[in-house]
Amino acid sequence: MNASISRILLTPDEMAAADAAAASSGIDSYGLMERAGQAAAASALRHFPGASRFVALCGPGNNGGDGYVAARALAASGAPTAVFALGDTAKLRGDAARAFANCSLDAEPLSDYAPQPGDVVIDAIFGAGLSRDVPTEVEDVIARVDAANVPIVAVDLPSGLCGRRGTPLGASFRAARTVTFMTRKPGHLLLPGRKLCGEVEVFDIGIPHRVIHSVAGRLVENGPERWADAFPHAGLETHKFKRGHLVVFSGGRTATGAARLSAMAGLRTGAGLVTIASPPEAVAVNANALTAVMLHGIDDLAALKHWLTDSRLSGFVLGPGFGVGERARQFALALAARPLVLDADGITSFRDQPELLFSRNDGGTGSLVLTPHEGEFARLFPDIAATDMAGKVEKAIAAAERANAIVVYKGADTVIAAPDGRAAINANAPPWLATAGSGDVLAGIIGGLLAQGMPAFEAACAGVYLHGQAGQRAGVGLTAEDLPRHVLPLYQPALAQ
Fold it and tell me: Which residue spans traverse the membrane (predicted)?
């Protein structure tokens, strides 16, 4: 795939617009179908050479047309091949009808398919275009195939999977491999879609890249090429005071660990100085556990405001272990003109008064990054969270617009969204990152990048990606205490990965 489109994610509607634009420009649409079907067949032969029989399950639209082309190619290779069709093949229209006519194999009714040992299924029933629950006939076939545990090669998307939200529409095939075209869809990366797709292969079938760019929205897969140019790099003339000063707020003497995780992560990310702002009773506790991180006693809001007259303080993290309540709200609002990562207790402190937080940036010059997990997101944005027809991307964008902030909607499929509609889905986080304190490390990474002057959306995207890389380096069995030492800034070797 061309690097310029390799991380673009097209919704099903945008992909349909690309197909239409390609046809309008004079590109033969049936030629695109031929290349798509041939790609699916090639993948099936390459990855399942020992199949006793290939079985193409074909739907009534263009995805079914891809399936007929694949079946013809498989049969031409000498592989035993069968075709089962949803609906009356006499009602096929356009390119799908042409593909069926060119396929010499008889099509049996889809409901008659009974999986046999050695079958490999080519799923070409619906692809990305489905927007309603699968019909009962298809649901029954999905259940039979699942029970038989035969491998599936899905064409575009496993049938039944929403290409926009990554959620099953009643039921969905679970593919071993998915063959898609030009770009991936959000459903290939969002969970549970990522698991249902198996390994995803992207084939360039000849739609000009200018067409893809012309229809693409502002959604991408998160990766270094999207923010590397904005990443802070130390030069020969750099000293610690030029690399930013990150402040992490600590909780009381029995709740200091989370702040230290954030602080160490910020230091590892490249901040020149990191200070933990600690209540007086917790200063000694933090001092006993810190070396390179500095300490500053902050008793109340007045003390904070006095300290903030120091303009060299360039980024802040508030929330990890801080405690929920009025003090957290006061501190967050006092930082309205400064770059702030609000996490954990800081977010929950605004659950009953979210409008105080959402108006924080109005007229201000600061950058606010919110890092909620699913529960915290629902506390701060209950109506958005409850919207069934919106996917995680749409919810994150709506929340970012309402809060006038960058929203990092955490999870195994973390979505980073900006108020202007930019969004990225992150896919490099290993499952063992789901451990207590991992989010505190993420907050510190983002805070460290903000402190170095990185723009908020790019800092959030970079922070999430570097967090995933740190989890990969740490390996299975990591704890949050292990994670900060595996955090590395972005150097050229990391960019090349």
Answer: none
Tokens of 46: 């390459």
Q: Produce one character per residue of 403-426: b if its CB has 16 or more CB atoms within 10 Å, e if not.
A: bebbbbbbbbbbbbbbbeebbbbb
Phi first, then psi: what are they for 189, rounded to 5°? -110, -35
Alpha helices per DSSP H over 25-93: 29-47, 62-76
Q: Which of 463, 464, 467 is nearest to 484 (CA)?
A: 467
Q: Provide DSSP, 101-148.
A: HH--S-EEEGGG----TTEEEEEESSGGG--SPPPHHHHHHHHHHHHH
pTM, to two decimals:
0.94
pLDDT (tens place) for every residue of the chain, 497 residues total: 455 799 999 999 999 999 999 999 999 999 999 999 999 999 999 999 999 999 999 999 999 999 999 999 999 999 999 999 999 999 999 999 999 999 999 999 999 999 999 999 999 999 887 889 999 999 999 999 999 999 999 999 999 999 999 999 999 999 999 999 999 999 999 999 999 999 999 999 999 999 999 999 999 999 999 999 999 976 545 555 678 999 999 999 999 999 999 999 999 999 999 999 999 999 999 999 999 999 999 989 999 999 999 999 999 999 999 999 999 999 999 998 899 999 999 999 999 999 999 987 665 456 999 999 999 999 999 999 999 889 999 999 999 999 999 999 999 999 999 999 999 999 999 999 999 999 999 999 999 999 999 999 999 999 999 999 999 999 999 999 999 999 998 754 444 34
- For the chain, domains (ranges, CATH) are 12-217 (3.40.50.10260), 224-495 (3.40.1190.20)
Binding-site entries for K(+): 63, 123, 159
DSSP 91: G
Can you tell me whether residue 411 is helix, strand or coil? coil
Binding residues: 62-66, 123, 127-133, 156, 159, 258, 321, 373, 410-414, 439-440
Sign of CA dihedral 324, 328, 333, 336: negative
Binding residues for AMP are 410-414, 439
Annotated binding site for (6S)-NADPHX, which residues?
A: 62-66, 127-133, 156, 258, 321, 373, 440
Rg (CA), the chain: 26
